[in-house]
Amino acid sequence: MATPEQQSALADKLKAIVGLDDKNSKDLATKPERATEILKYFEALKVDAGSDPKVKSMLYATAIKVKSPAHANVVGEYILGGKLPTAQQVDAAAKYVSGLAADAAIDRAEFEKVCGVGVTLSREKIRSLIEAELAKTPNDKLKEMVAKSRSQILGLVKKCDDLRFADINVVKDETEAYIDKHVGKVDDAPKPAKEEKKPAEKKPPAPSTVSEAWAMEKDFTNVGKGMTRTWLRDIANAPKDSKVYVCGWAHRVRHQAKMSFVVVRDGTGFVQVVFAGKIPNFHRETSLAIVATVRDEPKAAVELQPPIELHAESWAIVGESDGDIENLVTADSNPDKLFDARHIILRGTNGSTVMKVRSVITRAFREHFWSVGCTEVTPPTLVQTQCEGGSTLFDFQFYGEKAYLTQSSQLYLETVVPSLGDVFCVMPSYRAEKSKTRRHLSEFTHIEGEYGNITFEDLLSKLEHMICDVVDATIRLAGRELAFLNPSQLVSPDADPTKPESWKLRPTRPFYRLPYSDAIKFCNAHGIKNQETGEDFQYGEDISDKPERAMIALIGKPVLMTHFPASMKSFYMARDPKDSTLTESVDVLMPGVGEIVGGSMRMYEYKQMMAAYAHEKLDPAPYFWYTDQRKYGTVPHGGFGLGLERFCVWLMAQEHVKDVCMYPRLYGRCQP
Fold first, then answer.
1. Were 206 and a residue from 90, 210, 480, 485 both cysteine, which residue would form a disulfide, CB within 3.0 to 4.6 Å?
2. Domain membership flag for residue 96
């Protein structure tokens, strides 16, 4: 922490070199590391107290918005070279480089095109463009707009793409001139008489712990002393006009001259808080402690907020948020930038709601398994055997021996069926697939179940029951959050989202049954082609992601695709008693995402299993513990694996499996 003297010296430098005013220089000086970074940036570009104030303003905006020093230096060179003469061009440059990876080289030709380098607009040209743009709107309409606010006319002008790099001050001047010349002055229209204000009552002096300027506690520990904290999930139940003590983060902030409106988030819910009077212009994500009065306010019921407001009476800032939060991610940020800033994205309404619904879905799966008598187990994830084929294994050295990250816990689940009965697990699995489809991850949450003494038809029935049960439970527990993410699936806009019957996506039993051979015929009959060949599907070919989704879209309901050829499936899958070339296997396919479950009956006879090892050229020795299940009291058994992320994508109507992960791991990304 810098001393007051050091902060004062920093503030003086920021005023002289960067050109900040008193307030901003003092505010920035309270963050010595950030202030020093900005001063070094100006020093590297050889900008000093005597430099052009307009140039310094542009450089400061660049230093705030661009995180990569190398990229900031490039933008700075263009500014100093006079190639980015307007604030609009500087903003475009900052957006462009912020969308690049931190160490990515800048394509100068593309950069200059995006930022309008070389584009010059004279005042005459700007005037001409403004006249052409405003001539599109009838004069009577312009008069109405001017009567309400002259800034509405400027809003029309800003829609002109040819003016995007024009000097905004010239645009404003010429717009005003156009209004005066072509629209006429309407500012003299009679205005309603103002109600005579009563003299304000004198209030007693505030306690010494409160800042007189802002009516704010200096020490946040003084806020809510002796009160029990109210979580925002319960705020709608608080008695009206009662006082509550809440803590949270400023989710959205709107400061006005005499009032501020702040949506506060605490991880369990949202509520709008009204602050009367002038308060500090803190940024979103500032953490707050607040004592407030509960008021009815139907208009506050936006997104996931209840129809109430809190009117702050005593409050304090717990932790300030840096102003660069406003530019850390924007609507224009590319996907890589968004996932680099995943820790910030997860604070957003959509990001946090996805994580909450995912938690409820996981809970619903567990509660379903427990309700049908399954025992949860936690198999190892560091293994020395493969399950789904060697091409997708992540290998590593385990104390000098070769080992792998597990592809599935299935083999281990089978080993405890004789001791625990039906079992399940919720564990990570890993697939080293260099695939960038919307449904592939390198690390995913695998929900797997294994059942003893069942038939293939029993397995299909259990899958239907599980999926329907989990969907209904999720709707009951998180219907409102689900409606925020996937509103189009409600039967009607005013339906109660916590009632299962209100949802179109709710599956009903039985699911549509579709043998693999019939699926091939269905695709060919409906013009769905093999993506790799561009031809009709041949028997034995895999129906990949896009064709599979096209097929399900036409069927329009959950599908159990069954009886795949043995040549396409894993070595342990049981053969169909009626046709040994087929397996008793199933993929559960859901509209919009395709496959979410893969399951099968398992080979349970010792000789069959040994023959399967030989066919796959697998050494049976490392699998001794798995083979022993067939030696010591074997029974018909089967199970499945469900990708939680794919299930979430379907239920929450998200675009990609990475959108429903806290920190996704996929081809090309293993951070943050």
1. 210
2. no
Whether residue 503 sits in one domain with residue 372: yes
Residue 516 resides in a domain: no
Residues 386-443 pLDDT 10s: 776 666 889 999 999 999 999 999 999 999 999 999 999 999 999 988 877 788 899 9
Cα separation values, 14 from 43, 68, 275, 542, Å: 12, 21, 32, 64
Contacts of residue 74, defined as CB under 8 A and 6 or more positions apart, other chains included, come to 97, 106, 111
Residue 260: phi and psi, rounded to 5, are -130, 140
Q: Are residues 612 and 501 in the same domain?
A: yes
Examine the domain organization and report whether 164 and 228 are in the same domain.
no
**Structure-token pair, residue 427:** 């564990």
Asked whether the beta carbons of 491 and 502 are under 8 A apart, the reply is: yes
Ramachandran angles phi, psi of 523, nearest 5°: -60, -45
Name the token pair of 479: 């219907």
Do 218 and 285 reside in the same domain of the chain? yes
259-316 pLDDT, tens digit each? 999 999 999 999 999 998 888 889 999 999 999 999 999 999 888 999 999 999 999 9
With respect to residue 447, please indicate whether it lies within any of the assigned structural domains.
yes
Residue 620 has pLDDT above 80, yes or no: yes
Would residue 369 count as lying in a domain?
Answer: yes
Q: Are residues 251 and 366 in the same domain?
A: no
Regarding whether 253 and 137 lie in a shared domain, the answer is no
- Whether 366 and 476 map to the same domain: the answer is yes
Name the burial class of residue 119, with classes exposed (0-12), middle (13-18) and buried (19+) by CB atoms within 10 angstroms of its CB: middle
Phi, psi torsion values for 168, nearest 5 degrees: -65, -30
SS3 291: strand
DSSP letter string, 2-63: --HHHHHHHHHHIIIII---HHHHHHHHTSHHHHHHHHHHHHHTT--TTS-HHHHHHHHHHH
State the residue range of the domain holding 448.
Answer: 354-379+407-507+607-660
Separation of alpha carbons 230 and 266, rounded Å? 10
CATH code for position 494: 3.30.930.10
Per-residue pLDDT band for 494 (boundaries 50, 70, 90) equals confident
Least confident residue range of 210-224, 342-356, 431-445:
210-224
483 and 614 part of one domain: yes
Q: What is the per-residue pLDDT for 199?
A: 53
Backbone angles phi, psi at 443, to 5 degrees: -130, 130
Q: Which two tokens stand for residue 279?
A: 């308060």
Instruction: Tell me what the pLDDT averaged over the chain comes to.
Output: 87
Tokens for 517? 């051979």
Paired tokens of 101: 């990876």
